[in-house]
Amino acid sequence: MAGTIQNDKALEILQEEAKRDNLEIIFEEFNFPGWFRGNDSLALISPYYKALRFVALGYNPKSEKITAPLIFANYGYEEDYENLDAKDKIVLVLQERPKNREELLRYEAIEIAHQKGAKAILFVNDKKGGLVLAGVGNFQGYPNPIPAFSITYEDGQMLKRLLKNGITPTVVLRSNSQCKESTARNAILTIKGKSKKKIVVGGHFDSWDIGQGAVDNGVGIAVLYEVARNLSRFNDFYYTIEIVWFNAEELGLWGSKRYVEKHKNEVVLMLNLDMPGEPTGVNIMGFVELDSITREFIYSLDGFDLKDSVKSQPWTNSDHMYFMFEGIPVITTLGWMDESMYRHYHDFGDTFDKVSKKLISNSAAFVSLLVYRLATTEIKFPRLGKDEVIEVLRKNGLDRRLKKQKEWKFDN
Ligand SMILES: [Zn+2]
How many whole angstroms from 233 Cα to the centroid of ligand 1? Predict the structure, then answer.
């Protein structure tokens, strides 16, 4: 995780490895609201003892030992508390989001539980099989008002059954994590072109600590490294290519945010690699001016099964987001991943054994060719104006969620 000794050490290994390949990686340090996992605990103590499988959400504060009766508040919406007294209780809510209802983000459910007087909140995972779902409790990096944990589907069902049978479970928990202003580093490798204007190819270096971050985003940074090795062999680029290992993405896109603040005027295009799969095409993310160049590129490749060709499906909450907000054209690859790979997203099971070498290899070849095509000649990559960015976000229903998570940086 960003801000830890392990993260720093991993960056140094990357730099040394690159040196052996005659590649020079430099670091750019930035400040961000850090969060450090402590030795947290969570157990059912009545009507019987059972340790619960859980993961603390990012930005949980340190707490005293909390022993309290448990109540079930359905999805955790305001109205779910109508006939409940949550004061001094621990609240159990479902992670699952009902269809046809306004989306409730986890941070909103935490805020509501806090306002109702609850001491802590447990989110029941909707994926079966002993899985948890790590993530931040809010997007701004302030301490969560109460400790929030993700627990497994199975433990959640057990607790719900007890309540249904008229038994009030008593739960004991302690949050030992802490929020602390911290620093982390982005890693940057530059391949010079004729122009100083840059095409940024990036992916997030940090991950969640419970697994090994192999799929999210080990795969992405392995592809990134291979792209760096491939493209460094050429010196006929028009655009400068900057390969960036962004840090602190999982805690709120801090590395890419700081990079954009500093370098936005130098960047003409950004390609994001967050869990890239077996390549099936290119996503131009609402930047429709990129349609013809990417389509022409796809048609020129015979060796790949690019059945998705070119699509325009903008999404947010990864490292391309702040580039997108500036109107800088962003693209990602479209790809396919085996269920066994994405099943353990943000869980203990995101480990090295899930990774397919073939996927990394194919994705790296595809991305290398794509970036080579985009960087060798002087292609115009027109930026979108503010109104056009708003239009793209609105048309794809992204504005509501961005407003909820307080990331809507546009006045209207
Ligand atoms: Zn990721």
Answer: 28
Q: What is the pLDDT of residues 379-394, one digit of tens each?
A: 999 999 999 999 999 9
88 sits in the region (left: phi over 0; alpha: psi -120 to 50; else beta) called left
In terms of residue numbers, what domain contains 74? 41-176
Instruction: Identify whether 15 is part of a domain.
Output: yes
In a domain, 145, yes or no: yes
pTM confidence score? 0.96
Cα of 162 vs centre of ligand 1, distance in Å, is 36
Name the residues around ion ligand 1, CB cutoff 5 A.
Answer: 216-217, 274
CATH of the domain at 126: 3.50.30.30
> In sequence order, which residues have a C-beta less than 8 Å from that of residue 71 and are 6 or more positions away?
84, 85, 86, 89, 90, 91, 92, 163
CB 210 within 8 A of CB 347: yes
Cα-to-centroid distance, 219 and ligand 1 (Å): 10
30 shares its domain with 81 = no
Using one digit for the tens of pLDDT, what is the confidence trace for 261-316? 999 999 999 999 999 999 999 999 999 999 999 999 999 998 888 999 999 999 99
The rounded distance, in Å, linking the Cα atoms of 92 and 151 is 10
